[in-house]
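Need LysM peptidoglycan-binding domain-containing protein's 3D structure for a figure. Predict it.
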Amino acid sequence: MQKFNIHTVKKNDTLKSIATLYGIDKDALKLFHNNLCSVRDMVLIELTGQKEIFIPRAAVADQNKKVPLGRTNSLIFNPAKIYRKYGAVINIENGDHHNELKYEASVRWIRSENGLHYFEIDRISKLYLNEEEVNEIADMLAYQTSKVLYPLLISTDEQGKFKTVENLSVFKERWPGVKEEIYKEFEGETVDRYCRQIEKVLEAPETLNLYLKNDYFIRTLFYGIYQKFGENFNTEEIESFPITDNPIEPKYKIKLELDPLKDDHDLIRIDGTGKLHEERSVSDFMNGAPFSMIIDDDDPVINHDGEFRMRYYLDEKTIFPASMYLESSIRLREEKKISVSIATISE
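Structure prediction for LysM peptidoglycan-binding domain-containing protein:
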């Protein structure tokens, strides 16, 4: 992300007039410019023929271009009255195997209380697997039985990070109606066996909660991007993502960067890049280990064999995601990669 802007020097420009135009201190401007320019373009006391002056990225003549931020350059999460429809494309690559899932979902803010925000999420389209509407009986059953989950009520914290599913108890109440609809379309031992499996899961809310915790749409939309970005508009964090089946998710060391200026479409941009940051080895992950099998407190070997990157565009008025892309990878027996693209659907 670009760290500076460039002011083209005009006739009668002075260091002070340029600093005043951008609302910054004259000496601060000189120091910033001199740290970036060539030796011959350095400013000592006043301009001496320089054609361009480096300007801090956040310094602009049009103050409306600035992203509204709180203290310590905090991005504030205030989702009240939000209602959005999104299209989601999820790609799962595991070695030579590749599947693409497409669907649409709606997101509605319900309420905020005690430091939590509550949202209703609903599936509003059919499911498409590899560009085709699901039609194999196993896929159809999976799609039909998933209706027991929606609408889904979830909570997030004040950073916009997913916390938990709030309406697990409702799923059992919905099941008889969903099951009746399934038997109107299907019959046979396969259907009976599948329904028994669903009923078994519904009796184990911990298993169901873990399954929903791994929902890529939810985890991407509610990643938790509302952070304190500090003086340099960036922050580093250790964050996990459910790319494996291990209940203890792989952790990545990620640097988030906020562009302090809105783009040409008045969107707010956040980029993130990082690498796997795990004491667990490839074999640990393949064996489902919750922690490293090698105990070495003094000098643990860190596994960096995985990548993470993301880009979010937020609407300037609501500061809520308009579109986003998240990609996570990890080396197992072969490389596994998950990519999630989500974009607002225009009404």
